[in-house]
Amino acid sequence: MREFWVDPKRSISNAYEKTDEAILSHESDLGRGGSTSVTAVLINGQRLWVANLGDSRAVLSKGGEAIQMSTDHEPSTERVSIEHKGGFVSNMPGDVPRVNGQLAVSRAFGDKSLKSHLRSDPAIHDTTVDNKTDLLVLASDGLWKVMDNQEVVDIARRIKDPQKAAKRLIAEALKRESKDDISCVVVRFR
């Protein structure tokens, strides 16, 4: 715990590493798949740390302006790393780039069969929360595939209750026929 206060970035990275190890060690119970992740930690109400793997995303609103706080880990952007590890990135017509023709993200928890080609270290970003900071949206790719960052912020800002805002965003993604998993959390700062 003390390490967290001294070096939050390292602590978050270590937590992700331990999570990946735990998932891989329980593969027989959990199955052979994997997961993406997005995490937010607010320290003293002032410093916001965001970490993610894969295509789960964090978007912050400052004065109504959407600011993406995470990095989408797509195979096409990390092709060199994947190929250096002996994998390949395929891009069939009408589809998205995939690691070894299977996985549409280049970083993930689990996915043991592809682990030698994937990374499980998170992208970590931090920022100061100030009086312009309205809210934070954490969501899986099912939301982001059918809505852009600013649109999500605009909808969430109109609804005072963060739980209702998250439900509204999910309903909108379903209305737009999102074909992927949809999970969403909205955090209000003021």
From TrEMBL:
The record lists the catalysed reaction(s) as: O-phospho-L-seryl-[protein] + H2O = L-seryl-[protein] + phosphate; O-phospho-L-threonyl-[protein] + H2O = L-threonyl-[protein] + phosphate
Superkingdom assignment: Eukaryota
Keywords for this entry? Hydrolase, Magnesium, Manganese, Metal-binding, Protein phosphatase
Organism of origin is Artemisia annua
Q: State the EC number(s).
A: 3.1.3.16
Q: Which residues form the PPM-type phosphatase domain?
A: 1-189
Can you say what this protein is called? protein-serine/threonine phosphatase
Cofactors demanded by this protein: Mg(2+); Mn(2+)
Report the InterPro entries cross-referenced here.
Answer: PP2C, PPM-type-like_dom_sf, PPM-type_phosphatase-like_dom
Q: Which Pfam family name is an example for this entry? A: PP2C
Molecular function GO terms recorded = metal ion binding; protein serine/threonine phosphatase activity
Family affiliation: Belongs to the PP2C family.
